[in-house]
Design a protein that fits this description.
Blueprint: E1 4-8, E2 12-18, E3 24-30, E4 35-40, E5 50-54, H1 56-67, H2 76-85, E6 87-93, E7 102-103, H3 104-107, H4 109-113, E8 116-122, E9 125-128, E10 135-136, E11 141-146, H5 148-156, E12 172-175
Parallel strand pairs: 6-12
Antiparallel strand pairs: 1-2, 2-3, 3-4, 4-5, 6-11, 7-10, 8-9, 8-11
């Protein structure tokens, strides 16, 4: 896929590309932070058949969904290989956790356990690929990735806990 970009003086930046099915998408990032997405069923069309206007926060939320932060379909053959080598876990941070109110950098999760925090669910907000200076707050649900040993190592930081982050999440723990 070839993405064409161009500056829009006084407005922002324009990105456009054709989909595999021949449709045209144009995204305009405004200097003020909001985005506009235009869909053209035919690349030669003058008027879009769909226009979406998104705030900066809405665009970032949509971006995390499109990146597959909390769900990514994987083909069966790739899934088997993936499950043998990598796991993704969701771990809820308890108020008394040693990680609570520390930045990701200060918590040294990666150095201590080998697991990596790839997302933070904070209430209704998903923070995908959080910055190392992001503060881990009580009540956050950390999305972590690593091999079995690494994720278990992070879970061992809460050896005395027993209740899961949610009843329907099989692989989760509360860090204490």
């Amino acid at each position: 896929m070839k993405i064409k970009t161009g500056d829009l003086p006084g407005i922002g930046k324009r990105y456009s590309f054709a989909t595999a099915e021949g449709e045209q998408l144009v995204v305009i990032l405004h200097q003020a932070g909001h985005r506009e997405i235009y869909h053209f069923a035919d690349a030669d069309q003058d008027d879009p058949d769909l226009v979406l206007k998104l705030s900066d926060e809405e665009a970032r939320q949509l971006g995390t969904i499109l990146l597959g932060v909390d769900y990514q379909p994987v083909a069966d053959d790739r899934m088997e290989l993936l499950l043998k080598s990598v796991r993704i876990e969701w771990i809820r941070v308890a108020p008394e956790s040693e990680l609570a109110n520390k930045t990701i950098l200060d918590s040294q999760v990666r150095g201590t356990t080998g697991a990596t925090i790839i997302g933070i669910q904070r209430g209704d907000r998903m923070i995908g690929s959080p910055d190392v200076n992001e503060v881990i707050r009580p009540g956050d649900t950390l999305m972590i990735i690593g091999n079995r040993e690494q994720t278990k190592s992070l879970e061992s930081l809460c050896a005395s806990c027993g209740s899961p982050a949610s009843a329907d999440t099989e692989k989760s723990a509360i860090i204490r």
